[in-house]
Fold:
Amino acid sequence: MRRVLQYVALVAYVVFLAFPLLWLLSTALKTPQEMALTEPTWIPREPTLANFGDAFGEQDLVGAALRSLVVALFASVITVLISLPAAYAMARYRGLLNKVAIGWVLVSQVFPFILIIIPLFMILRDLDLVNTLPGLVVVHVTFTLPFALWMLQGYVRAVPRELEEAAAVDGAGRLRSIASVVAPLLAPGVVATLLFSFISSWNEFMFALVVLQNPDVMTLPLTLVRFTGPEGVARLGPLAAASLMATIPSLIFFAIIQRRLKSGLMAGAVKG
Amino acid sequence: MTATVTRPAPPRGPRRARRPGISRQTREMWVLMLPALVPVLLFSVGPLLYGIGLAFTDARNTRVHQTEFVGLENFTRLLTDAEFWSSFQIGAIWAVSVTVLQFLAALGLALLLNEKLRFSGLARVLSVVPWAMPPVVIGLMWKLVYHPDAGMLNDLLGTHINWLADFSLALPAIIVVGIWAGMPQTTVVLLAGLQNVPKELYEAGEMDGAGTWRRFWSITLPQLRPVIVAITSLDFVWNINQFGLVYVLTQGGPGGRTRLPMLFAYEEAFRYRMAGYASMLGLAMAIVVLAVLGLYLWRQMREAK
Structure:
Protein backbone atom coordinates (compact mmCIF):
# COMPACT_ATOMS: atom_id res chain seq x y z
CA MET A 1 0.00 0.00 0.00
CA ARG A 2 2.78 2.36 0.93
CA ARG A 3 4.61 1.53 -2.28
CA VAL A 4 1.48 2.32 -4.30
CA LEU A 5 1.19 5.75 -2.73
CA GLN A 6 4.84 6.37 -3.37
CA TYR A 7 4.44 5.52 -7.02
CA VAL A 8 1.39 7.74 -7.32
CA ALA A 9 3.40 10.62 -5.85
CA LEU A 10 6.34 9.91 -8.14
CA VAL A 11 4.07 9.92 -11.19
CA ALA A 12 2.58 13.24 -10.06
CA TYR A 13 6.07 14.74 -9.86
CA VAL A 14 7.03 13.39 -13.26
CA VAL A 15 3.84 14.83 -14.76
CA PHE A 16 4.41 18.25 -13.18
CA LEU A 17 8.04 18.36 -14.28
CA ALA A 18 7.63 16.91 -17.75
CA PHE A 19 4.44 18.43 -19.13
CA PRO A 20 5.64 21.96 -19.80
CA LEU A 21 8.63 20.44 -21.58
CA LEU A 22 6.46 18.17 -23.70
CA TRP A 23 4.19 21.07 -24.53
CA LEU A 24 7.17 23.12 -25.66
CA LEU A 25 8.29 20.23 -27.86
CA SER A 26 4.79 19.71 -29.21
CA THR A 27 4.43 23.42 -30.03
CA ALA A 28 7.77 23.40 -31.80
CA LEU A 29 6.63 20.57 -34.07
CA LYS A 30 3.23 22.00 -35.06
CA THR A 31 2.35 23.62 -38.37
CA PRO A 32 0.99 27.21 -38.30
CA GLN A 33 -2.39 25.84 -39.41
CA GLU A 34 -2.52 23.48 -36.46
CA MET A 35 -1.49 26.27 -34.09
CA ALA A 36 -4.46 28.33 -35.27
CA LEU A 37 -7.02 25.66 -34.32
CA THR A 38 -9.32 26.65 -31.49
CA GLU A 39 -8.85 23.29 -29.78
CA PRO A 40 -5.10 22.83 -29.29
CA THR A 41 -3.88 19.32 -30.05
CA TRP A 42 -1.52 17.42 -27.78
CA ILE A 43 0.34 15.42 -30.35
CA PRO A 44 1.01 17.29 -33.59
CA ARG A 45 -0.98 15.69 -36.43
CA GLU A 46 1.66 16.42 -39.03
CA PRO A 47 4.89 16.92 -37.11
CA THR A 48 7.14 19.30 -38.97
CA LEU A 49 10.64 20.58 -38.52
CA ALA A 50 9.80 23.67 -40.55
CA ASN A 51 9.66 25.78 -37.38
CA PHE A 52 13.33 25.14 -36.73
CA GLY A 53 14.13 26.36 -40.21
CA ASP A 54 11.83 29.34 -39.84
CA ALA A 55 13.45 30.25 -36.53
CA PHE A 56 16.73 30.80 -38.33
CA GLY A 57 15.10 33.38 -40.53
CA GLU A 58 13.38 35.23 -37.71
CA GLN A 59 14.60 38.42 -36.10
CA ASP A 60 18.27 37.77 -36.64
CA LEU A 61 18.29 34.79 -34.27
CA VAL A 62 21.41 33.37 -35.87
CA GLY A 63 23.23 36.65 -35.35
CA ALA A 64 22.02 36.77 -31.76
CA ALA A 65 23.22 33.21 -31.15
CA LEU A 66 26.62 34.08 -32.59
CA ARG A 67 26.87 37.15 -30.37
CA SER A 68 25.88 35.06 -27.35
CA LEU A 69 28.54 32.55 -28.31
CA VAL A 70 31.25 35.21 -28.61
CA VAL A 71 30.30 36.84 -25.30
CA ALA A 72 30.12 33.51 -23.49
CA LEU A 73 33.46 32.31 -24.90
CA PHE A 74 35.31 35.48 -23.96
CA ALA A 75 33.60 35.76 -20.58
CA SER A 76 34.29 32.15 -19.59
CA VAL A 77 37.92 32.09 -20.74
CA ILE A 78 38.72 35.41 -19.07
CA THR A 79 36.92 34.37 -15.89
CA VAL A 80 38.96 31.18 -15.59
CA LEU A 81 42.24 32.87 -16.51
CA ILE A 82 41.97 35.52 -13.82
CA SER A 83 40.37 33.37 -11.14
CA LEU A 84 42.81 30.47 -11.44
CA PRO A 85 45.77 32.22 -9.75
CA ALA A 86 43.48 33.73 -7.14
CA ALA A 87 41.87 30.34 -6.45
CA TYR A 88 45.34 28.84 -6.03
CA ALA A 89 46.23 31.57 -3.56
CA MET A 90 42.97 31.12 -1.65
CA ALA A 91 43.47 27.38 -1.35
CA ARG A 92 47.16 27.37 -0.48
CA TYR A 93 47.69 30.42 1.72
CA ARG A 94 45.28 31.12 4.48
CA GLY A 95 45.32 34.76 5.40
CA LEU A 96 43.12 37.78 5.88
CA LEU A 97 42.74 38.27 2.13
CA ASN A 98 41.48 34.74 1.86
CA LYS A 99 38.76 35.39 4.45
CA VAL A 100 37.80 38.63 2.73
CA ALA A 101 37.52 36.81 -0.60
CA ILE A 102 35.22 34.17 0.86
CA GLY A 103 33.18 36.88 2.54
CA TRP A 104 32.77 38.63 -0.78
CA VAL A 105 31.61 35.43 -2.46
CA LEU A 106 28.82 35.20 0.13
CA VAL A 107 27.91 38.91 0.12
CA SER A 108 27.66 38.93 -3.65
CA GLN A 109 24.81 36.43 -3.34
CA VAL A 110 22.73 38.62 -1.04
CA PHE A 111 22.86 42.06 -2.61
CA PRO A 112 20.13 42.87 -5.11
CA PHE A 113 21.45 43.42 -8.61
CA ILE A 114 19.80 46.83 -8.91
CA LEU A 115 22.19 48.33 -6.37
CA ILE A 116 25.15 47.40 -8.55
CA ILE A 117 23.71 47.65 -12.03
CA ILE A 118 22.78 51.34 -11.86
CA PRO A 119 26.28 52.63 -11.04
CA LEU A 120 27.79 49.96 -13.27
CA PHE A 121 25.64 51.19 -16.12
CA MET A 122 26.86 54.73 -15.48
CA ILE A 123 30.48 53.58 -15.43
CA LEU A 124 30.03 51.60 -18.64
CA ARG A 125 28.35 54.59 -20.25
CA ASP A 126 31.28 56.82 -19.36
CA LEU A 127 33.63 54.22 -20.85
CA ASP A 128 31.41 54.06 -23.98
CA LEU A 129 30.84 50.36 -23.36
CA VAL A 130 27.03 50.45 -23.28
CA ASN A 131 25.53 48.63 -26.27
CA THR A 132 28.80 46.85 -26.91
CA LEU A 133 29.68 43.19 -26.48
CA PRO A 134 32.93 43.94 -24.58
CA GLY A 135 30.79 45.85 -22.08
CA LEU A 136 28.66 42.76 -21.50
CA VAL A 137 31.76 40.55 -21.28
CA VAL A 138 33.11 42.78 -18.50
CA VAL A 139 29.84 42.50 -16.58
CA HIS A 140 29.57 38.74 -17.04
CA VAL A 141 33.16 38.18 -15.92
CA THR A 142 32.61 40.24 -12.78
CA PHE A 143 29.48 38.38 -11.82
CA THR A 144 30.64 34.86 -12.63
CA LEU A 145 33.91 35.45 -10.83
CA PRO A 146 32.80 34.84 -7.21
CA PHE A 147 31.29 31.43 -7.91
CA ALA A 148 34.07 30.42 -10.34
CA LEU A 149 36.60 31.33 -7.65
CA TRP A 150 34.69 29.25 -5.15
CA MET A 151 34.55 26.23 -7.44
CA LEU A 152 38.21 26.45 -8.45
CA GLN A 153 39.62 26.82 -4.97
CA GLY A 154 37.74 23.67 -4.01
CA TYR A 155 39.43 21.83 -6.87
CA VAL A 156 42.86 23.22 -5.93
CA ARG A 157 42.32 22.14 -2.34
CA ALA A 158 41.61 18.62 -3.56
CA VAL A 159 45.13 18.41 -5.03
CA PRO A 160 47.33 17.25 -2.16
CA ARG A 161 49.94 19.79 -1.18
CA GLU A 162 52.39 16.92 -0.62
CA LEU A 163 52.50 16.22 -4.35
CA GLU A 164 53.73 19.74 -5.01
CA GLU A 165 56.24 19.48 -2.23
CA ALA A 166 57.45 16.12 -3.53
CA ALA A 167 58.08 17.69 -6.91
CA ALA A 168 59.99 20.49 -5.23
CA VAL A 169 62.15 17.97 -3.37
CA ASP A 170 62.88 16.28 -6.68
CA GLY A 171 64.36 19.58 -7.81
CA ALA A 172 61.50 20.96 -9.85
CA GLY A 173 61.07 24.73 -9.60
CA ARG A 174 57.89 26.19 -8.23
CA LEU A 175 56.37 27.03 -11.59
CA ARG A 176 57.58 23.74 -12.99
CA SER A 177 56.01 21.78 -10.16
CA ILE A 178 52.75 23.64 -10.64
CA ALA A 179 52.81 23.07 -14.39
CA SER A 180 53.71 19.39 -14.29
CA VAL A 181 52.00 18.22 -11.11
CA VAL A 182 49.11 20.52 -10.21
CA ALA A 183 47.88 21.45 -13.68
CA PRO A 184 47.06 17.94 -14.93
CA LEU A 185 45.19 17.09 -11.74
CA LEU A 186 43.36 20.40 -11.91
CA ALA A 187 42.32 20.08 -15.56
CA PRO A 188 38.88 18.50 -14.94
CA GLY A 189 38.06 21.20 -12.41
CA VAL A 190 39.14 23.91 -14.81
CA VAL A 191 36.98 22.42 -17.55
CA ALA A 192 33.99 22.24 -15.21
CA THR A 193 34.47 25.89 -14.17
CA LEU A 194 34.91 26.92 -17.78
CA LEU A 195 31.65 25.18 -18.72
CA PHE A 196 29.85 26.68 -15.74
CA SER A 197 31.01 30.20 -16.67
CA PHE A 198 30.08 29.63 -20.30
CA ILE A 199 26.55 28.55 -19.40
CA SER A 200 26.09 31.40 -16.92
CA SER A 201 26.93 33.88 -19.62
CA TRP A 202 24.96 32.10 -22.36
CA ASN A 203 21.81 32.04 -20.20
CA GLU A 204 22.19 35.48 -18.62
CA PHE A 205 19.32 37.90 -19.22
CA MET A 206 19.15 40.65 -16.60
CA PHE A 207 22.50 42.36 -17.18
CA ALA A 208 22.21 41.93 -20.92
CA LEU A 209 18.84 43.69 -20.79
CA VAL A 210 20.42 46.72 -19.15
CA VAL A 211 23.70 46.84 -21.06
CA LEU A 212 22.41 46.03 -24.56
CA GLN A 213 19.48 48.23 -25.56
CA ASN A 214 20.14 48.34 -29.27
CA PRO A 215 18.44 45.39 -31.08
CA ASP A 216 21.43 45.06 -33.40
CA VAL A 217 23.73 43.89 -30.62
CA MET A 218 21.30 41.84 -28.53
CA THR A 219 22.21 38.39 -27.30
CA LEU A 220 20.03 35.31 -27.71
CA PRO A 221 17.92 35.55 -24.52
CA LEU A 222 17.04 39.17 -25.31
CA THR A 223 16.14 38.38 -28.90
CA LEU A 224 13.98 35.45 -27.80
CA VAL A 225 12.01 37.72 -25.49
CA ARG A 226 11.53 40.28 -28.25
CA PHE A 227 10.14 37.43 -30.31
CA THR A 228 7.00 37.28 -28.17
CA GLY A 229 5.35 40.31 -29.63
CA PRO A 230 1.61 40.79 -29.93
CA GLU A 231 1.62 39.00 -33.31
CA GLY A 232 -0.69 36.16 -32.22
CA VAL A 233 -0.19 32.42 -32.24
CA ALA A 234 1.24 31.90 -35.73
CA ARG A 235 4.78 32.57 -34.60
CA LEU A 236 4.67 30.48 -31.45
CA GLY A 237 6.01 27.49 -33.41
CA PRO A 238 9.29 29.12 -34.42
CA LEU A 239 9.53 30.64 -30.94
CA ALA A 240 9.28 27.21 -29.32
CA ALA A 241 11.79 25.82 -31.79
CA ALA A 242 14.25 28.63 -31.09
CA SER A 243 13.79 28.19 -27.33
CA LEU A 244 14.65 24.52 -27.64
CA MET A 245 17.77 25.31 -29.63
CA ALA A 246 18.85 27.92 -27.08
CA THR A 247 18.74 25.21 -24.41
CA ILE A 248 21.10 22.82 -26.22
CA PRO A 249 24.39 24.18 -24.78
CA SER A 250 23.10 23.91 -21.21
CA LEU A 251 21.80 20.40 -21.82
CA ILE A 252 25.20 19.31 -23.09
CA PHE A 253 26.80 20.85 -20.02
CA PHE A 254 24.46 19.07 -17.65
CA ALA A 255 24.84 15.79 -19.50
CA ILE A 256 28.58 16.06 -18.91
CA ILE A 257 28.47 16.94 -15.23
CA GLN A 258 25.27 15.04 -14.36
CA ARG A 259 27.08 12.12 -12.80
CA ARG A 260 29.31 14.27 -10.66
CA LEU A 261 26.54 16.66 -9.76
CA LYS A 262 24.87 14.62 -7.08
CA SER A 263 27.83 13.16 -5.28
CA GLY A 264 30.69 15.53 -5.94
CA LEU A 265 29.86 19.17 -6.36
CA MET A 266 26.77 19.48 -4.23
CA ALA A 267 27.76 17.10 -1.45
CA GLY A 268 30.97 19.06 -1.08
CA ALA A 269 29.13 22.35 -1.10
CA VAL A 270 26.74 21.20 1.60
CA LYS A 271 29.30 19.66 3.86
CA GLY A 272 31.21 22.94 3.61
CA MET B 1 64.67 35.90 -12.63
CA THR B 2 65.84 32.36 -13.23
CA ALA B 3 67.02 32.20 -9.66
CA THR B 4 63.52 32.75 -8.29
CA VAL B 5 62.01 30.30 -10.70
CA THR B 6 64.42 27.45 -10.05
CA ARG B 7 64.69 27.91 -6.32
CA PRO B 8 62.88 24.96 -4.79
CA ALA B 9 59.93 26.04 -2.75
CA PRO B 10 60.56 24.88 0.80
CA PRO B 11 57.58 23.21 2.42
CA ARG B 12 56.29 25.76 4.84
CA GLY B 13 53.50 25.58 7.32
CA PRO B 14 51.47 28.70 7.98
CA ARG B 15 53.08 29.08 11.39
CA ARG B 16 56.62 29.37 10.09
CA ALA B 17 55.74 31.86 7.39
CA ARG B 18 54.33 34.43 9.76
CA ARG B 19 57.63 35.40 11.30
CA PRO B 20 59.47 37.60 8.77
CA GLY B 21 57.65 40.95 8.17
CA ILE B 22 56.04 41.01 4.74
CA SER B 23 57.02 37.55 3.69
CA ARG B 24 57.50 36.29 0.19
CA GLN B 25 54.36 34.30 0.74
CA THR B 26 52.25 37.41 1.31
CA ARG B 27 53.75 39.06 -1.74
CA GLU B 28 53.06 36.00 -3.82
CA MET B 29 49.51 35.89 -2.60
CA TRP B 30 48.87 39.47 -3.63
CA VAL B 31 50.36 38.92 -7.06
CA LEU B 32 48.18 35.86 -7.57
CA MET B 33 45.06 37.62 -6.31
CA LEU B 34 45.60 40.80 -8.31
CA PRO B 35 44.12 39.75 -11.68
CA ALA B 36 40.86 38.79 -9.98
CA LEU B 37 40.94 41.62 -7.47
CA VAL B 38 41.09 44.44 -10.00
CA PRO B 39 37.87 43.64 -11.88
CA VAL B 40 36.05 42.81 -8.65
CA LEU B 41 37.03 46.14 -7.10
CA LEU B 42 36.41 48.10 -10.28
CA PHE B 43 33.15 46.57 -11.43
CA SER B 44 31.64 45.07 -8.30
CA VAL B 45 32.77 46.48 -4.96
CA GLY B 46 33.19 49.98 -6.39
CA PRO B 47 29.75 50.10 -8.02
CA LEU B 48 28.19 48.63 -4.88
CA LEU B 49 29.59 51.43 -2.70
CA TYR B 50 28.77 53.98 -5.39
CA GLY B 51 25.24 52.58 -5.53
CA ILE B 52 24.80 52.90 -1.77
CA GLY B 53 26.01 56.49 -2.11
CA LEU B 54 23.58 57.17 -4.96
CA ALA B 55 20.70 56.18 -2.71
CA PHE B 56 21.21 59.45 -0.83
CA THR B 57 21.25 61.66 -3.93
CA ASP B 58 18.74 62.79 -6.52
CA ALA B 59 20.82 61.18 -9.30
CA ARG B 60 19.06 60.77 -12.63
CA ASN B 61 20.08 58.15 -15.10
CA THR B 62 20.83 60.67 -17.84
CA ARG B 63 24.01 62.30 -19.08
CA VAL B 64 23.04 65.86 -18.27
CA HIS B 65 21.98 66.17 -14.68
CA GLN B 66 23.54 67.88 -11.71
CA THR B 67 23.44 65.30 -8.94
CA GLU B 68 22.91 66.64 -5.46
CA PHE B 69 23.02 65.10 -2.04
CA VAL B 70 19.50 64.90 -0.63
CA GLY B 71 20.01 62.90 2.55
CA LEU B 72 17.13 60.64 3.44
CA GLU B 73 14.67 62.23 1.04
CA ASN B 74 14.54 59.09 -1.15
CA PHE B 75 13.85 57.02 1.92
CA THR B 76 10.93 59.11 3.12
CA ARG B 77 9.58 59.08 -0.41
CA LEU B 78 9.87 55.30 -0.43
CA LEU B 79 7.94 55.02 2.83
CA THR B 80 5.05 57.03 1.46
CA ASP B 81 5.04 55.49 -2.02
CA ALA B 82 1.91 53.34 -2.28
CA GLU B 83 3.26 51.66 -5.42
CA PHE B 84 6.38 50.61 -3.58
CA TRP B 85 4.37 49.11 -0.73
CA SER B 86 2.19 47.13 -3.07
CA SER B 87 5.30 45.91 -4.88
CA PHE B 88 6.92 45.06 -1.54
CA GLN B 89 3.86 43.10 -0.49
CA ILE B 90 3.81 41.19 -3.77
CA GLY B 91 7.52 40.49 -3.37
CA ALA B 92 6.99 39.17 0.14
CA ILE B 93 4.11 36.90 -0.92
CA TRP B 94 6.13 35.67 -3.88
CA ALA B 95 9.37 35.03 -2.01
CA VAL B 96 7.81 33.34 1.02
CA SER B 97 5.35 31.17 -0.89
CA VAL B 98 7.83 30.11 -3.56
CA THR B 99 10.50 29.32 -0.98
CA VAL B 100 8.17 27.34 1.28
CA LEU B 101 6.31 25.45 -1.47
CA GLN B 102 9.51 24.80 -3.36
CA PHE B 103 11.04 23.35 -0.21
CA LEU B 104 8.06 21.11 0.58
CA ALA B 105 7.84 19.88 -3.01
CA ALA B 106 11.58 19.29 -3.18
CA LEU B 107 11.64 17.47 0.16
CA GLY B 108 8.87 15.14 -1.03
CA LEU B 109 10.68 14.42 -4.27
CA ALA B 110 14.03 13.93 -2.54
CA LEU B 111 12.48 11.44 -0.09
CA LEU B 112 10.93 9.53 -3.00
CA LEU B 113 14.17 9.51 -4.97
CA ASN B 114 16.00 8.27 -1.89
CA GLU B 115 13.64 5.27 -1.71
CA LYS B 116 15.16 3.75 -4.84
CA LEU B 117 11.83 3.13 -6.55
CA ARG B 118 11.57 1.95 -10.13
CA PHE B 119 11.62 4.67 -12.79
CA SER B 120 13.14 7.04 -10.28
CA GLY B 121 15.95 7.45 -12.81
CA LEU B 122 13.50 9.24 -15.08
CA ALA B 123 12.35 11.50 -12.26
CA ARG B 124 15.97 12.13 -11.32
CA VAL B 125 16.84 13.31 -14.80
CA LEU B 126 13.64 15.35 -15.08
CA SER B 127 14.28 16.99 -11.74
CA VAL B 128 17.55 18.41 -13.11
CA VAL B 129 16.19 19.61 -16.46
CA PRO B 130 14.67 22.92 -15.23
CA TRP B 131 18.08 23.73 -13.80
CA ALA B 132 19.67 23.25 -17.19
CA MET B 133 17.27 25.60 -18.96
CA PRO B 134 17.95 29.29 -19.48
CA PRO B 135 15.50 31.28 -17.29
CA VAL B 136 14.24 33.07 -20.38
CA VAL B 137 13.32 29.77 -22.02
CA ILE B 138 11.54 28.62 -18.85
CA GLY B 139 9.52 31.84 -18.94
CA LEU B 140 8.67 31.47 -22.63
CA MET B 141 7.76 27.81 -22.17
CA TRP B 142 5.29 28.58 -19.39
CA LYS B 143 3.89 31.40 -21.47
CA LEU B 144 3.01 28.74 -24.02
CA VAL B 145 1.43 26.60 -21.29
CA TYR B 146 -0.63 29.55 -20.01
CA HIS B 147 -1.43 30.88 -23.48
CA PRO B 148 -5.14 31.81 -23.62
CA ASP B 149 -5.72 30.31 -27.11
CA ALA B 150 -2.97 27.83 -27.82
CA GLY B 151 -2.18 26.91 -24.22
CA MET B 152 -2.15 23.49 -22.66
CA LEU B 153 -3.72 24.50 -19.37
CA ASN B 154 -6.95 25.93 -20.77
CA ASP B 155 -7.35 22.87 -22.95
CA LEU B 156 -6.78 20.59 -19.99
CA LEU B 157 -9.25 22.40 -17.73
CA GLY B 158 -11.70 23.32 -20.48
CA THR B 159 -11.47 26.96 -19.49
CA HIS B 160 -10.78 30.14 -21.42
CA ILE B 161 -8.74 32.08 -18.92
CA ASN B 162 -5.96 34.46 -19.80
CA TRP B 163 -3.93 33.31 -16.81
CA LEU B 164 -1.10 35.81 -16.95
CA ALA B 165 -3.41 38.77 -17.56
CA ASP B 166 -5.92 37.96 -14.84
CA PHE B 167 -5.75 40.27 -11.83
CA SER B 168 -6.17 37.59 -9.20
CA LEU B 169 -4.65 34.58 -11.01
CA ALA B 170 -1.43 36.09 -12.39
CA LEU B 171 0.48 35.95 -9.11
CA PRO B 172 -0.44 32.32 -8.28
CA ALA B 173 0.38 31.43 -11.90
CA ILE B 174 3.90 32.83 -11.70
CA ILE B 175 4.40 31.26 -8.27
CA VAL B 176 3.83 27.85 -9.88
CA VAL B 177 6.51 28.70 -12.44
CA GLY B 178 8.83 29.81 -9.65
CA ILE B 179 8.39 26.47 -7.89
CA TRP B 180 8.96 24.54 -11.10
CA ALA B 181 12.11 26.50 -11.91
CA GLY B 182 13.65 26.37 -8.43
CA MET B 183 12.80 22.83 -7.37
CA PRO B 184 15.83 21.11 -8.97
CA GLN B 185 18.57 22.79 -6.94
CA THR B 186 16.64 22.29 -3.73
CA THR B 187 15.91 18.64 -4.55
CA VAL B 188 19.52 17.85 -5.42
CA VAL B 189 20.83 19.49 -2.26
CA LEU B 190 18.25 17.78 -0.03
CA LEU B 191 18.92 14.43 -1.68
CA ALA B 192 22.64 14.81 -1.04
CA GLY B 193 21.78 15.63 2.57
CA LEU B 194 19.52 12.58 2.89
CA GLN B 195 22.24 10.31 1.62
CA ASN B 196 24.58 11.62 4.27
CA VAL B 197 22.29 10.60 7.13
CA PRO B 198 23.99 7.62 8.82
CA LYS B 199 22.09 4.37 8.18
CA GLU B 200 22.78 3.21 11.74
CA LEU B 201 20.41 5.86 13.07
CA TYR B 202 17.51 4.35 11.13
CA GLU B 203 18.46 0.85 12.22
CA ALA B 204 18.55 1.94 15.83
CA GLY B 205 15.21 3.72 15.38
CA GLU B 206 13.66 0.60 13.91
CA MET B 207 14.91 -1.50 16.79
CA ASP B 208 13.32 0.91 19.21
CA GLY B 209 10.06 0.38 17.35
CA ALA B 210 9.79 3.79 15.75
CA GLY B 211 7.43 3.87 12.75
CA THR B 212 8.11 5.58 9.42
CA TRP B 213 6.54 8.83 10.51
CA ARG B 214 8.37 8.85 13.81
CA ARG B 215 11.70 8.10 12.12
CA PHE B 216 11.11 10.97 9.73
CA TRP B 217 10.40 13.46 12.52
CA SER B 218 13.05 12.29 14.97
CA ILE B 219 15.88 11.23 12.66
CA THR B 220 15.56 12.58 9.12
CA LEU B 221 14.48 16.14 9.88
CA PRO B 222 16.95 16.88 12.70
CA GLN B 223 19.78 15.36 10.67
CA LEU B 224 18.83 17.40 7.62
CA ARG B 225 18.47 20.62 9.56
CA PRO B 226 21.74 22.33 8.57
CA VAL B 227 21.10 21.51 4.92
CA ILE B 228 17.51 22.73 5.15
CA VAL B 229 18.53 26.01 6.76
CA ALA B 230 21.24 26.60 4.16
CA ILE B 231 19.13 25.87 1.10
CA THR B 232 15.99 27.69 2.24
CA SER B 233 18.07 30.78 3.07
CA LEU B 234 19.66 30.71 -0.37
CA ASP B 235 16.30 30.08 -2.06
CA PHE B 236 14.76 33.00 -0.20
CA VAL B 237 17.52 35.37 -1.28
CA TRP B 238 17.31 34.17 -4.88
CA ASN B 239 13.54 34.44 -4.92
CA ILE B 240 13.28 37.92 -3.43
CA ASN B 241 15.86 39.11 -5.96
CA GLN B 242 14.10 37.36 -8.84
CA PHE B 243 13.83 39.38 -12.00
CA GLY B 244 14.32 37.63 -15.34
CA LEU B 245 11.70 34.90 -15.05
CA VAL B 246 8.89 37.26 -14.08
CA TYR B 247 10.01 39.93 -16.53
CA VAL B 248 9.63 37.40 -19.34
CA LEU B 249 6.29 36.06 -18.08
CA THR B 250 4.35 39.23 -17.25
CA GLN B 251 6.70 42.25 -17.19
CA GLY B 252 5.06 42.94 -13.83
CA GLY B 253 1.53 43.12 -15.18
CA PRO B 254 -1.44 43.02 -15.17
CA GLY B 255 -1.71 46.40 -13.51
CA GLY B 256 1.38 45.77 -11.41
CA ARG B 257 -0.06 42.61 -9.83
CA THR B 258 3.18 40.69 -10.35
CA ARG B 259 5.57 43.63 -10.09
CA LEU B 260 8.23 42.23 -7.77
CA PRO B 261 10.48 44.80 -6.06
CA MET B 262 13.30 44.20 -8.52
CA LEU B 263 10.98 44.87 -11.48
CA PHE B 264 9.76 48.01 -9.78
CA ALA B 265 13.34 49.17 -9.22
CA TYR B 266 14.28 48.32 -12.80
CA GLU B 267 11.41 50.43 -14.12
CA GLU B 268 12.29 53.33 -11.86
CA ALA B 269 15.94 53.20 -12.90
CA PHE B 270 15.75 52.51 -16.61
CA ARG B 271 12.33 53.68 -17.71
CA TYR B 272 11.85 56.74 -15.49
CA ARG B 273 15.61 57.22 -15.04
CA MET B 274 15.30 57.81 -11.28
CA ALA B 275 18.70 56.35 -10.41
CA GLY B 276 18.85 57.74 -6.88
CA TYR B 277 15.40 56.57 -5.91
CA ALA B 278 15.92 53.10 -7.43
CA SER B 279 19.20 52.76 -5.55
CA MET B 280 17.45 53.56 -2.28
CA LEU B 281 14.89 50.92 -3.14
CA GLY B 282 17.70 48.40 -3.73
CA LEU B 283 19.37 49.38 -0.48
CA ALA B 284 16.13 49.05 1.46
CA MET B 285 15.55 45.59 -0.03
CA ALA B 286 19.11 44.54 0.84
CA ILE B 287 18.54 45.61 4.44
CA VAL B 288 15.22 43.77 4.62
CA VAL B 289 16.78 40.61 3.19
CA LEU B 290 19.72 40.77 5.59
CA ALA B 291 17.37 41.34 8.54
CA VAL B 292 15.07 38.45 7.60
CA LEU B 293 18.03 36.18 6.96
CA GLY B 294 19.75 37.21 10.18
CA LEU B 295 16.63 36.59 12.23
CA TYR B 296 16.02 33.23 10.57
CA LEU B 297 19.59 32.01 11.00
CA TRP B 298 19.74 33.29 14.58
CA ARG B 299 16.52 31.47 15.53
CA GLN B 300 17.69 28.28 13.83
CA MET B 301 21.00 28.39 15.62
CA ARG B 302 19.37 28.99 18.98
CA GLU B 303 16.96 26.12 18.46
CA ALA B 304 19.75 23.84 17.32
CA LYS B 305 21.41 24.33 20.69
Q: What stands out?
A: The two ends of chain B are 56 Å apart (CA to CA). Chain B touches chain A through 106 residues (CB under 8 Å). Residues 82-114 of chain B form the longest helix (33 residues). The domain at 82-304 of chain B is CATH 1.10.3720.10 (MetI-like fold).
